[in-house]
Amino acid sequence: MISGVVRGKYSTIPAVLPGICHLLRKWTTTTKNHLRVCLLQEVIVLIEMNNVSKTYANGVSALNNIDILIEKGEFVYVVGPSGAGKSSFIKMIYREEKPTEGSIQIHGTDLMTLKEKHVPFLRRKIGVVFQDFKLLPKLSVFENVAFALEVIEEPKDVIRRRVMEVLDVVRLKNKARFFPDELSGGEQQRVSIARAVVNNPRVVIADEPTGNLDPDTSWEIMDILENINRNGTTVLMATHNREIVNAIKKRVIAIESGRIVRDEMKGDYGYER
Amino acid sequence: MKGRTLARHGKEGLKNLGRNSWMSFASVSAVTIMLFVVGVFLLLIVNMNSFISSVEEDVEVQVYIDLGTSDEEQTELRQQLQNLDHVDGISFVSKDEGLDQLIDSLDQQSGAFESLRNENPLNDKFVIQAEQPQQTEQVAEAASDLPYIDSIDYGEQVVEQLFNVTKILRIIGLVLVVGLMFTAMFLISNTIKLTIVARQQEIQIMKLVGATNGFIRWPFFVEGLLLGVLGAVIPIAAVTGGYHYLYNNYAEQLSIDFAEILPTYPLTLQISAVLVGIGILVGIWGSVTSVRKFLKV
Ligand SMILES: Nc1ncnc2c1ncn2[C@@H]1O[C@H](COP(=O)(O)OP(=O)(O)O)[C@@H](O)[C@H]1O
Ligand SMILES: [Mg+2]
């Protein structure tokens, strides 16, 4: 069932592996074998969705029977027309929304059975970036990034060190004391990326991160996201930016009317403006 | 919880207070008024209770003797009274001594009563002490069957009246306090609701980066707690200061010969503790309701 959509760097590994693991989870009595297969799977698979559907409370069906596997270290674009369900797809991953049907595993965590009180710990493995940055206007750049570590109660010295490290990655070390309204849009987005990656998440998911930015600035942002990806963090980004998708070739998942209509390893944007 | 986290929650809670300073002021005022009323009524009720128990300890049966009773008959009556159950002691008070006592107890205005000495309206009486204060009524009833008695009085009315006054005070106090408490609670909960709305963006980001719900809630509990505690400051000062002043300047006027008002300490300390406690309770109560309702974490 899911084997059909398995793609990625590890194409030499049998695509049926997750499927086997899935079956074993259901039927195995020999925990040992179960563990062996699933450990192998956990090394490779970061996000696994099986038959996921989402119908909102108002009756709108945003996602239909989504099957997907995303491996560790991948860079994935999610494209599709407005209202296709890209944001809904992303929200499933950080458990902003819960599927009405199907199952989702993130890094071995089953989101369907995950208790509310454990959601914060899932979120610590996921960095989220939005089109509108979501920075706190009264905090400086440093404080905005440090905020993500303070609220998960990291020690002060760790916070200082990590924040300066990521500000270096997004090339804003020299603006640590600035406030958001003293920065350009691109700089603000870089702060928000810094905040997303400051606690070393497994995956960064970005919902139209360049949506509010001019082309030049958008390339800067892509540069930074690629950098983060090169260091081993999985990046998943929903985008409308045709030039970027066509120039920086990555895996492309196209969603239309809540269904995956295309999933290509080095895909094109594939839509006219 | 780590000390540093606690400090953070405290700091955030304080910041919250400043964020909606007018609503915070309104909440603190409501708590202040409520606690002031609680304080005043507590002082009244505690003093009434102490009055009642000293009156109860002191009650004696006054047996007024018929006017025409001869000395022999008086001796006979005394003997019979002596034989009643639970009688501890009997003393004879002549009508002249009775008048002296009365005029003494009325103190400064006594001049007006001096004229009574010419035509004493009182009766001679026996004053009986029961073995136990609770047996007073029993002794009085047994005595009422005896001859040569004009009337019997045993402070029952005083005790009952004090009880009634206290009961009414309690009811008025309770109604006022419960009403004011809900008002204060409502205002606190609304203040915190406003803070939550004002901090919505921050809360959203906190959730996004994996702050636990407990962590997000704490500053709002602190805010409620501070509103309650701040509201207790003025009532404590007013109640303690006012009572201290009353006690030092008017203790005698406020006492009825055998029953005195209670000394300032430790009473005001205890009441202060009660006021802070109620303040904290109302503050936490207000924050719990609004956090539960408005902070969908
Ligand atoms: N919270 C919600 N409640 C109800 N309907 C929603 C909600 N969020 C999105 N939708 C609907 O779901 C569909 C997919 O929306 P979305 O995932 O935001 O698409 P995209 O991000 O691709 O533009 C749309 O029809 C949208 O109106
Ligand atoms: Mg969207």
Automatic annotation (TrEMBL), chain A:
One of its GO terms (cellular component) is plasma membrane. It is found in: Cell membrane. It holds the Pfam family ABC_tran. One of its GO terms (biological process) is cell division. Residues 47-272 form the ABC transporter domain. It is a peripheral membrane protein. GO terms for molecular function: ATP binding; ATP hydrolysis activity; transmembrane transporter activity. Part of the ABC transporter FtsEX involved in cellular division. Keywords: ATP-binding, Cell cycle, Cell division, Cell membrane, Membrane, Nucleotide-binding, Transport. It comes from Salibacterium qingdaonense. This is Cell division ATP-binding protein FtsE. The gene is ftsE. PROSITE patterns: ABC_TRANSPORTER_1, ABC_TRANSPORTER_2. SUPFAM superfamilies: P-loop containing nucleoside triphosphate hydrolases (SSF52540). The keyword Chaperone does not apply. Belongs to the ABC transporter superfamily. PANTHER family: CELL DIVISION ATP-BINDING PROTEIN FTSE, IMPORT ATP-BINDING PROTEIN. Homodimer. Forms a membrane-associated complex with FtsX.
From TrEMBL, chain B:
The keyword Membrane applies. One of its GO terms (cellular component) is plasma membrane. The keyword Cell membrane applies. It is a multi-pass membrane protein. Residues 175-286 form the ABC3 transporter permease C-terminal domain. Pfam families: FtsX, FtsX_ECD. GO terms for biological process: cell division. Keywords: Cell cycle, Cell division, Cell membrane, Membrane, Transmembrane, Transmembrane helix. The chain crosses the membrane at residues 21-46, 168-189, 225-247, 267-288. Residues 59-152 form the FtsX extracellular domain. It is found in: Cell membrane. Part of the ABC transporter FtsEX involved in asymmetric cellular division facilitating the initiation of sporulation. PANTHER family: CELL DIVISION PROTEIN FTSX (PTHR47755). NCBIfam families: FtsX_Gpos (NF038347). Belongs to the ABC-4 integral membrane protein family. FtsX subfamily. This is Cell division protein FtsX.
